Amino acid sequence: MAKNTNVQGLKELNDLLDSLTDPKFRKAALRATAKRVMTPVKSTMIENAPSEIKNDVVIKTKVNTNKKLGNIKGFIKEDKFNELYSEVTFSYKKGTHGDESAYGMAMIHNYGRRNPLAKVSGDSKFHVFGNPTNEHLRYIGTTQGTYFVDKVRFEAEPKIRSDFEKYFLEEVEKQIKKHDRWIKKGGK
To answer: 134 in helix, strand or coil?
Structure first.
């Protein structure tokens, strides 16, 4: 494969990416670019996050290179709409912060809590000193949001765009070299 060193626009970059005929090399280029771009955003999020959820910041990346969407009726999920979806978020594992996940705690810290009442549904009950009560509502208070997620997003967005363009070309060229070596060794 000839290496196109004069990439001036999106069309040339897309043609360069399309020269990676094997999906695993295409995925590797997209995933490596996302990791390089999102790592500084993760660091910034850790700096701005409240202390109890700092260790739960994660980078989620999905690459949909060879996935078929099947029979679609109406709505396509956000993480399947494009070939690459990457975000800095919080762990979804329940029970790490009481009954709540780190993601839930981050949303409470970010947007605040406006409803001062906690409510249980069904056969669930609140417990006091380990004993069930007959209460279905409990006053838990309200909190002001700190909007730390929105602040990080607003500050990081322009840098993400410029870094992605820079790193993506490097990663595609690196994967083209690997792809060429693989073909020479008898791949395909």
So the answer is: coil
